[in-house]
Structures are given as structure tokens and as C-alpha cells.
UniProtKB/TrEMBL annotation:
Residues 91-199 form the Co-chaperone DjlA N-terminal domain. This is Tellurite resistance protein TerB. It comes from the Bacteria. It holds the Pfam family TerB. InterPro entries: DjlA_N, TerB-like. SUPFAM superfamilies: TerB-like (SSF158682).
Length: 210
């Protein structure tokens, strides 16, 4: 019986220093090439595809696309901040949609808090697009926040909670579903009672300016 299969073989092409997004400091890296080979009796014989290049951190062993070598600490931090702002805005939009509608007061609040709290402008068209995507795909606020908050630090979790709180409380009469969701955010964001209370108090103080 002839045994034929495939095997990935990785080789080191280069070494150097880079800013590792996982370690958040400069580290040494290896530029690796991974290529699948056809095997005969478990022996690699013929390559069956082009090599795939990737960067591997020598410290944490995380792997990255080679584009990571073009990023320094400043650009990476800016990229992370931009990603967080996007996620926090989406979370705030989802909270307003818990009762199935979004009001003019909530739209105005989303625009103000996005600009002043999250340092990112958002117009009515974008809010409308985010609402449509959420409703068409039946995205729930609690599930979304549970997923994206895994890489937030504590200050980001607090800022996101403030954004959600301000969006949900834009209308004078807040629905029970929104009240329940905001209360559940403490557990979803893994906040202590003190952290949650401090974030809400900060949001109430921000409300004067937002």
C-alpha cells in the first residue's frame, strides 16, 4: 500500500527586532516560511503550494502577518484605540436597540458621546447602517460585548460602559429591558461593584458635557 499525504514544513528566513503586539514591547522575531509538501511514506517530496510568510515572536511565540514589521509602538497603539472606539460605538448602538427602536434623542446622544468620549465622529448615516446590520443579523448587545471586551483593558471597559449608559439613558423614560441590560454589563465586563459604580458616576458627570 502506498501512503501519500501532505505535511507543512516551516523554515526560518530571517531574524530581527520588532514591536510585538502581544508582549506590548520590542522583542526579537523570526521570519518564517511555511509550505505544504506532498509526502510519500511520510517523507516530504514535492511542494504543492507557494510558501506562506509569517512573523513569530521569540518570547510569546505568537504569530503575525509580515505587515506587523511595518508597525511601531505608536502606530499599533493608535490602531488599537481606533478599533476600541469602533467596538464601543457598536456596543452603544446595540444597547439602544434592545427595545427594538432607536429615538432621535438616542441618535443625538450617540453622536455627541462618540465625538467627546471616544474621540471619533459618527454621522446619522453610519448609525443607521450599524442599526440595519444589527437588526438583520440579530446581533445581541450582551453577546457582542462579551466577545469584543476580552481584549479591553479596565479603562476601556469603563469607557465603553459609560458610552452604553449615556446612549441608553438619552430618553427620559428608559425601558426595563435597557435597565436590565445595563445591570448585566457589570458581570459581562467582569467589573467589581466599585468599578461599575465609579464608571456610572463618571458617565453621569460626563452627561453635563456630552
Amino acid at each position: 500500500m502506498i501512503l501519500i499525504g501532505t505535511m507543512n514544513i516551516s523554515t526560518t528566513r530571517d531574524r530581527g527586532n520588532f514591536y510585538c503586539p502581544s508582549c506590548a514591547v520590542d522583542q526579537t522575531y523570526r521570519l518564517r516560511a511555511r509550505r505544504p509538501f506532498l509526502t510519500l511514506y511520510f517523507i516530504p517530496t514535492v511542494p504543492v503550494a507557494a510558501p506562506e510568510l509569517f512573523v513569530q515572536c521569540d518570547e510569546c511565540r505568537a504569530t503575525w502577518d509580515v505587515s506587523v514589521l511595518e508597525m511601531d509602538r505608536e502606530s499599533h497603539e493608535a490602531s488599537k484605540a481606533s478599533q476600541f472606539a469602533e467596538e464601543a460605538i457598536r456596543a452603544a448602538v446595540l444597547v439602544t436597540l434592545v427595545d427594538g427602536t432607536i429615538s432621535e434623542a438616542e441618535i443625538g446622544s450617540l453622536q455627541r458621546l462618540s465625538a467627546r468620549l471616544l474621540q471619533r465622529d459618527v454621522d446619522r448615516d453610519e448609525i443607521g447602517r450599524l442599526c440595519s446590520i444589527a437588526q438583520q443579523n440579530q446581533i445581541e448587545a450582551s453577546n457582542y460585548v462579551l466577545t469584543v471586551s476580552r481584549h479591553w483593558d479596565r479603562s476601556q471597559a469603563a469607557a465603553a460602559l459609560q458610552a452604553m449608559f449615556l446612549a441608553a439613558t438619552a430618553d427620559p423614560e428608559m425601558s426595563d429591558s435597557k435597565l436590565k441590560l445595563l445591570a448585566n454589563m457589570r458581570e459581562i465586563l467582569e467589573m467589581t461593584d466599585q468599578e461599575y459604580e465609579e464608571a456610572v458616576e463618571a458617565a453621569l458627570n460626563l452627561d453635563t458635557y456630552v
